[in-house]
Amino acid sequence: MKKPKRCLKLNSLPFDIISHPTQDLTAVSTIEGEIVFLSLQDDISKIDTVLQHADSCRRILFSGTSLLSISSDKSFCVCDIETRKVQHRYQNAHDNPLYALCEVRDGKVFATGDDEGVIKLWDLRKEEPIVMIQPEHDNFISSFSVDSTGSTLVAASGDGRLSVWNSRQRKLIARSDECDSELLTCDVVRTNSKVVCGDGEGVLNIFTWDNWGDISDRIPVQEEVSVDTVLCYSEDILVLGCMDGVIRATSLFPHKPLTHIGDHSDNSIEALCLSHDEEEILSIGHDYFVRAWSVEKLDEDIKKLSVEDSDKDSGDSEDNDDDESDSSEDEQPKKKLKHISSKEIKSNETADFFSDLA
C-alpha cells in the first residue's frame, strides 16, 4: 500500500468529495446526510460539519459562493459556503432518491437524476424545475457530463445505456445501445469529440461524438473490478477510482496504463477530486479516510509519454523521407495522410441556451 502525503479519518462513510476551485476549502458528503468542510493547509483538518439532509448526501458541487447537494431523502439543497446557511431547499425535488448532479451552465442551470432514471433541469432563480425529462432509462442515473458550450447534456445509467439531450430544446438527441455492463461514470473529453464511460466490469467504454448508437472503442482496466469514479486530469489522462481500492491513471490516446497513484487497501473508492492548487489528488473510500496523493509521479509519467510520442513521430517522419528518396523517379508518389488530432479540431460554437431565462 502506497503512503499518501496526508490523510484524515472521518466518523461516517463518505460519498462524495469536491474542492473549491479558488480557495482552500474542500467538502465531503456522508451517509449520515452531513457535509464536512475541510482545510488542506498543512494537515487535512476539519473546519465545520453541517447536517444538511435527513438521509445520505450522495453528491455535492461547488458553484460560486454556494454548495449544492442532493440526497436519497429526495431533496436538493443550496447553501452559502461562508455562513453554511441554507439558501434554498427543494424538499421533494424528485419522487425518488436522487443520485446524480451536474452544473449545466453559468452557475444557474443544473441537472439532477434519480434512482428511477428521471432527469430534471433546474434554474435556481425559480421555485420549480424548468423541465422534467421523462425516463429514457430503466435504472438509476449514475452520472452526467456536458459539452463546453453547455448545450448538450450526456447521462449515463445503470441500465448500461447513454442518453444525449439537447438542453436548449429540452429533447432527446440519441440513446445508445445497451453496453455489456452498467455505466457508472461519464465524461466528455478531447474537446467535445469523445465521451468515456466507466462500467461495472472494469472497462472504459468510448463513444464518438454524434455516433451514439454503439461504442467506438473499449479499454479494459481491470477484469471484474468496476470503475466507480473518474477524474479527468487532462484531455487525454484519466484517473480512475476502482472497486478494488486502487487509484489508477491511464492515457486514452494513445492508450497506455500509467502509474498507480495510491490505494485504500481493499476498500472501494467512492470519489476523487483535485485540490484547489492542483498539486494533490484527493480520494475517499469505504475505509472512511480522506487521502491526499501527490501528482508528481503522474506528471513525470505524462512527460515521458509526451517524449515517447515525439520520438515516434520523428522516427515515422524519417522513415517516410527514406522511402521517398528510394522511390524511382517515374513512380507516382503516394499521397500522405496527415493525422489531425482532436485538439486541432475546433468544435462549432453554439448559441447559449436558456437565454430566455436570463
Task: Characterize the structure shown.
It is a single chain. The chain has one helix at residues 296-326, and strands spanning 6-9, 14-19, 26-30, 34-39, 45-51, 57-63, 66-71, 76-80, 86-90, 98-105, 109-114, 119-123, 131-133, 141-146, 152-157, 162-166, 171-175, 187-189, 194-198, 203-208, 217-220, 227-232, 237-242, 246-251, 256-263, 269-274, 280-285, 289-294. The chain is mainly β. The longest helix is centred in the last third of the chain and has 31 residues, at 296-326. The radius of gyration is 22 Å and the shape is globular. 41% of the residues are buried.
Question: What key phrases describe this protein's structure?
Answer:
disordered C terminus; mainly beta; four-stranded antiparallel sheet; 1 helix; single chain; about 45% strand; about 10% helix; 28 strands; about 350 residues
Structure summarized in a few sentences:
The chain contains one helix and 28 strands. The protein has 358 residues and is mainly beta.
Question: Helices and strands in order, then pairings?
Answer:
Elements: E1 6-9, E2 14-19, E3 26-30, E4 34-39, E5 45-51, E6 57-63, E7 66-71, E8 76-80, E9 86-90, E10 98-105, E11 109-114, E12 119-123, E13 131-133, E14 141-146, E15 152-157, E16 162-166, E17 171-175, E18 187-189, E19 194-198, E20 203-208, E21 217-220, E22 227-232, E23 237-242, E24 246-251, E25 256-263, E26 269-274, E27 280-285, E28 289-294, H1 296-326
Antiparallel strand pairs: 1-28, 2-3, 3-4, 4-5, 6-7, 7-8, 8-9, 10-11, 11-12, 12-13, 14-15, 15-16, 16-17, 18-19, 19-20, 20-21, 22-23, 23-24, 24-25, 26-27, 27-28
